Amino acid sequence: MNRFLGTRAVLLSTIVLLCPKTYSGLGSSPQQDAVRLQKPLQHEVSVTLKLIQVFVTDKSGKPVLDLTKDDFILFDDGKPQKLTEFEKHVLSLPASGERTEERVVQTPVPPSPRLLNRKFFLFFDFEYNNPPGVRKMGEAAKHFLDTQVLPSDEVGVLSISTLKLLQINLNLTTDHRKVRDLVSKIGLRDSSQRFEDSEDEYQRKLAAGNFADARPETKTTWPTPDMPKYDAKEMWHLSAMTYVDCLTALAWALRSIQGQKNLILFSEGIPYPIVYSFTPSDLTWKYENMLKEMQTSNVAISSLYTGPIDPVPATQTGAWTLSKTSDDTGGQYWGNMYNYEPFADKVNTMTGSYYVLGYSVGEKWDGKFHAIKVEVKRPGCDVRTQNGYSNPKLFTDYTDLEKKITLVDLALAEKPISQTPARFDMAALPRSTEPANNLLLAAAIPAEKLGDTLGKKVEVVSLAFNQADEIVEMKRTEENFTGLKQPYAHLLSILSVPPGSYKCRIVLRDLETGQAAVAGVSATVPGPVVTGIKLLPPLLVRPDRGALYLKAHGPSAGTDKKAVTPDMKSLLAYDTAQYAPYLERTLYRESEAWAVIRCAVPEGSSPKLKLTAFLFDKLTRERIPMALIILEENSDRGTRAFFVRLAVPDVEPDDYTLFIVAEDETSGARSEIACDFAVEDAMKKGGLGR
User: Fold this and answer.
1) pTM
2) How many CA atoms lie less than 13 Å away from 520 in the CB half-sphere?
3) Which of 194, 369, 575, 653 has its CA 20 to 30 A from that of 557?
């Protein structure tokens, strides 16, 4: 599950950078969203502008480009709506061999320009496919990139397989050469296997030899053991359930991208009998719900069927489900992968010219699905648009999947789709170079300020994401935030991650309302030190007897079940009954500061370490010595921890860099770490003690 949560996170974090300020398609404007999301999540009704993209062609499939607002009739749940917004986008179709150009024609005096780049996701399905289909979908994708894509178009690459589930192989980009280089690897023997799951790899190896070549770990035993019994239908059913869940999660992630999203799916499709004939019927519901989520997210899925062309009825293959998927989401379906050029032309024509219709709705938070129907008064026109959208709903009505998706969205997105969360401070520090319990998250949560946001039942989640935005470690507890009288509640989390760089997040979320508060920083966890020494970033603390700490996300015993789980005090190297984390970047002249300083050393070594500190004046370039006294010292595997007191000298208030230096007096090895601070005159309440 973490892998596919991580996949969604890739989209959500990238969306922040790619989402344009202008808007089009289904959903309210960013300005309206900002106003709405400042209100409590459980409010009942709000008025918002609903925008629908509509594609109109004549009977021959050519775009109809000269319609006006009065030519359209839009029905929301069967009720005609008054159109308040109208816009048309026209893709000028050039003579053969010329590059296409896009232009937009707007109604007089529009409130703001709304032209958006087209957005395409090339979606390669390795779950429901075959070796010829894999080869052909690569050819078709390259043809589309070479002949149909405009310089301004944004293109991303997705894939799905049994082993890797949903993957974001490339985020939306206008670097089409990069997209083509990636797509060109599909189906080739020298592929980096970025797209290839275990089934495709098996087919390649099988073609090169015999069964033993494909499964080299297979051993012949005698007598032959009894094979475990399994239900093939049940396995197909569970596989399809996972597949549909991944697509539902993708639909949720794509909500963050404004405007029309065009998913070009290369697939053999889920066989119709699996979705509609087997029992139980929960898969049917999940599949239909996935289509509604795609409609709500304004995603048009155009499908190229990569299965064999034979006389078998469509209801015995995946052709029927692919066709339904495209029809319900407003995309195109093409059933012949060997003649893909017309498919590429159709997709380009369909996405290049469209109309935007806008109307006001009273939006209730009930999750109800609204059916959309658009008619054109002019005879002989075919109209394609999404079938509908869903109202937002209360957090208590969210499914477990929706709660997980929004949690990752809150953690990674600069502007989460569900709300504007409160923010608080945290630090993330490597505490060891060993793989177990090597990352410390510390937070100072303004309990009084969050009184209106968090209530009796609040989940507290600590997460570490790798550079692919996959969840590497997650810990969760529940807290009651009512009645907290102290200004700050402190949280400490000990996580275990491999060496590398991480996005560290702490999410607080009220389990009744969904309101949330989020903190986030980045951290790098080094690997073991082989030679020399290496200082790790320090954690500053301040005297605070009786400081309020939430339930700690404590350490783990690691893989050794017999190992004793270490206590928090030994891992932190300071006394939580006497001190609390100090996360501000301010020191005070002629005061004292306390810190936990860690130094990584080769395992088994016993260096004689000497610690010193100084302030570096950024203006004068002067080094100003600081008194440093070691109050306590302890050793862990590969790490020495020091609890120290620093004396801040009498310097001019300004910006400084605090340098801490460690030297091995035996070998002469040296390491230093630097942190920026502002030095001020007055000691503010809650600051460091004198």
Assistant:
1) 0.68
2) 20
3) 575
